[in-house]
Automatic annotation (TrEMBL):
Originating species: Amphora coffeiformis
Presence of keyword Transmembrane helix: no
Record's keyword terms, sorted: Signal
Protein name (database record): Lipocalin-like domain-containing protein
Cited InterPro entries: Lipocalin-like
Signal peptide: 1-20
Domain (Lipocalin-like) ranges: 41-120
Pfam families attached to this UniProt entry: Lipocalin_5 (PF13924)
Length: 192
């Protein structure tokens, strides 16, 4: 059994689920490989909200969240979510505030339409309980996925989780344009 942890709403309730999927088991067909390829790259957060069973919508990181999600071809991922409207405080500790970041590996179950993040390192200043996780003892975040295209022709990725009480959490991501190689300034470092 895997330990799977999910997160929803302002209360940041933790719910344990079980899942069993493996990227290596799912990559037997060319359509599976194509689906996996759709995940790869960098995604910017468009919206992040939780919705109660009665339809009430809340915004765990405020209505103007910022975030970035990355998937690599060799199976690694990282995610960062933050409030965009953090108050500016002189001499403030930069790690205090509504932020959540984690990194690890991922797999895709094309039959169940889920992606599972194997969390190796987790950091939060959002009032969430600390998680003990490592590459040898990861936590698992499993979400339903749906690909689409927005009105500007940009690829989108919707990650969702519906809970037992029919409440749900949705994170909508838009594919980030590739950074043009050769335009990033490089500073020379001379040591010694």
């Amino acid at each position: 059994r895997r330990r799977t942890i999910t997160w929803v709403g302002r209360l940041h309730s933790w719910i344990c689920l079980t899942t069993s999927s493996s990227m290596t088991e799912q990559l037997g067909t060319s359509s599976s490989t194509t689906i996996l390829g759709k995940f790869l790259g960098v995604w910017d957060l468009v919206s992040f909200h939780a919705q109660a069973a009665d339809g009430t919508r809340t915004y765990p990181h405020g209505p103007h969240s910022w975030g970035q999600l990355m998937y690599t071809a060799d199976g690694y991922m990282s995610a960062h979510l933050s409030r965009q409207d953090k108050p500016a405080v002189k001499n403030a500790n930069p790690v205090i505030g509504d932020q959540l970041a984690y990194t690890g590996t991922f797999d895709v179950d094309v039959t169940a339409h889920t992606v599972t993040h194997h969390v190796h390192c987790f950091c939060s200043s959002s009032g969430l309980p600390e998680m003990e996780c490592s590459p040898d003892n990861p936590a698992y975040f499993t979400r339903d996925y749906q690909f689409g295209t927005n009105e500007h022709g940009v690829d989108t990725l919707l990650l969702s989780l519906v809970y037992y009480d029919q409440s749900k959490m949705d994170l909508l991501w838009a594919r980030k344009k590739p950074y043009p190689h050769g335009t990033m300034p490089v500073k020379e470092r001379v040591i010694g």
